[in-house]
Design brief:
This protein has 179 residues and is of the alpha+beta class. It is built from seven helices and five strands, in the order E-E-H-E-H-H-H-H-H-E-E-H. The chain has a five-stranded mixed sheet. The longest helix has 17 residues. The two termini are 15 Å apart.
Length: 179
């Protein structure tokens, strides 16, 4: 459920974001997620279904919110997704990470990079630095400032959605927002 008194998205969707769907969409769905979170894994399936159902009427944005105290591989996985994004492969890596949530150790992450055709030497160097940690922290802090305290947390047209992340509930919320 999204209400006018719901917390608002502090950092507006912009060029820094990973976006699927057109800027002209009626609804923008922003997810703060954690690649190791089982609830985010379930939401991933729902979001894919939402994208199929709403097509160009919805755009989707994913932001990193790794819960490092409970998910030891989450932050590294988020940095891997950002490194893949630097090579124009964010969304394929995003999908692989969610589809292989139980295999997020460094060995697997390097395999995924190779599988996607990333320049593995560049990828490995960026992961050692770690070049993308500030980006992941920026996502995380924007979530905290927006009232995110767990994953997944969704915002529909800038307002936090506090309902269930099952497909039926999400469809109803998006249809209300689009109306």
């Amino acid at each position: 459920m999204t209400t006018a008194t719901a917390p608002k998205l502090v950092l507006p969707v912009g060029k820094r974001d990973h976006i699927q769907g057109p800027a002209t969409a009626f609804v923008t769905l922003v997810e703060y997620g954690d690649y190791e979170c089982p609830y985010c894994g379930q939401a991933y399936i729902a979001v894919k279904a939402l994208q199929r159902q709403f097509g160009d009427q919805m755009r989707f944005v994913f932001r990193n919110f790794p819960l490092t105290t409970v998910h030891p591989h989450a932050e590294n996985a988020a940095e891997v997704a950002e490194a893949a994004g630097a090579q124009h492969k964010f969304w394929p890596m995003h999908d692989i990470l969610f589809e292989h949530q139980s295999a997020l150790s460094d060995r697997y992450l390097k395999e995924y990079a190779a599988q996607l055709g990333l320049v593995v030497l560049r990828f490995s160097r960026e992961m050692v630095e770690p070049l993308y940690a500030p980006r992941v922290r920026e996502d995380f802090m924007s979530g905290v400032l927006s009232g995110v305290n767990g994953t997944p947390t969704f915002f529909i047209n800038g307002l936090r959605y506090d309902g269930s992340s099952d497909l039926v509930s999400m469809v109803e919320a998006i249809e209300r927002a689009a109306a």
